[in-house]
Write a structure and sequence with these properties.
Elements: E1 6-7, E2 13-14, H1 19-32, H2 40-44, H3 50-61, H4 72-85, H5 89-95, H6 101-112, H7 117-126, H8 147-157, H9 163-174, H10 183-191, H11 212-215, H12 241-249, H13 267-274, H14 281-288
Antiparallel strand pairs: 1-2
Helix pairs in contact: 4-9, 5-6, 9-10
The structure holds a DNA duplex (21 and 21 nucleotides).
DNA sequence: AATGGTACCAACCGCGGAACC
DNA sequence: CGGTTCCGCGGTTGGTACCAT
């Protein structure tokens, strides 16, 4: 089911991820976040390219990611959103908590794509969608289409409150008695036009305006990404870059990074700028902390 | 039991856009 | 302001599992 591991011409490992690699990536991001995907694998001691790490994290390792069968309600949401937006998988993922765009895309191609059109009609009828800005009802946005619709998509996606989508979701999900409490996330979405948490290093695309809370609605507001997180026994509590600077200023590493503190750059940047052996960084930090 | 076809899904790749220098 | 780097999206592929013959 997964690609066989192999090493490419640059010494980067490709293919299936091992448990050990998963653990390294998970624990590194838990401790330091992911400010820079290109540097992250080196700092985490992984022989992977940054993109591969990002993909693994986004699709498999990040908190609250769901795996397994899609519920009927989730399928209905996907169908409804696909009717409206076309192949905008990230847009759908932002509105299906716990599902990655890749998983939604796969599910669409394998289960939903070839379903009878009548079901799409049912969804559209059951949850009528208001007309979009500058786009007729009967003209679904298609990723292959031209700039006019691309522009339309930008306008739409720049609206933090997308009333029609929320309406669809509320209608679909409220009809389900066994769904895992979607109302909190939806309420949050509809009532807050901009709720990116200060200090969060969870970086999301400006396209869909997903927030940390959108992504992980089951968590209390400001948990994993925004609050100091409790780590395992060999770990420490880190809440922000300023904590990094404090650590450095009082640590042996601080002598390596004398110019670092006032600049408020990332921890990775400071080490890299120093020119030290980045591959030893992970173990150095672990042993130090 | 062996073989071939298909379904499924994790992972890769190319591209465009944003951010940075 | 142009070039470079990085990030994220969406399409595609590789390889295993499962099913039919």
């Amino acid at each position: 089911m997964v690609r066989a591991p192999r090493i490419d011409q640059f010494g980067m490992k490709k293919g299936a991820w091992s448990e050990d690699e998963d653990n390294k990536l998970r624990s590194f991001i838990a401790k330091y976040g992911h400010k820079n995907w290109c540097e992250l694998p080196k700092l985490a001691g992984l022989s992977r390219c940054g993109r591969s790490c990002r993909l693994r994290w986004m699709n498999y390792l990040r908190p609250n990611i769901k795996h397994g069968n899609f519920t009927k309600q989730e399928e209905d949401v996907i169908i409804g959103l696909h009717n409206k937006f076309g192949n905008k998988w990230s847009l759908m993922a932002a509105r299906l908590p716990g599902r990655s765009d890749n998983e939604i895309k796969n599910h669409w191609h394998t289960h939903l794509k070839n379903q009878p059109a009548v079901r799409n009609d049912e969804i559209s009828t059951a949850f009528p969608i208001e007309e979009e800005v500058g786009k007729p009802d009967d003209e679904p946005i298609n990723s292959n289409k031209t700039t006019t619709e691309g522009c339309s998509m930008k306008i739409i996606s720049n609206l933090n409150i997308q009333v029609d989508e929320v309406g669809i979701l509320l209608a679909v999900l409220s009809s389900s008695s066994d769904h895992e409490s979607p109302s909190s996330s939806l309420t949050s979405k509809s009532s807050s036009s901009s709720c990116l948490s200060n200090g969060s290093d969870y970086v999301v695309s400006s396209h869909h305006h997903a927030t940390p809370h959108d992504q992980f609605p089951d968590e209390p507001a400001g948990s994993f990404w925004t609050e100091p997180f409790l780590l395992d026994s060999e770990s420490i509590i880190v809440s922000s870059i300023s904590d990094y600077t404090d650590m450095f200023s009082s640590s042996p590493l601080g002598s390596m990074t004398n110019n670092f503190i006032p600049q408020q750059v990332s921890i990775q940047d400071s080490i890299m700028a120093d020119g030290s052996d980045v591959l030893s960084w992970s173990s150095t930090m672990d042993s130090y902390f």
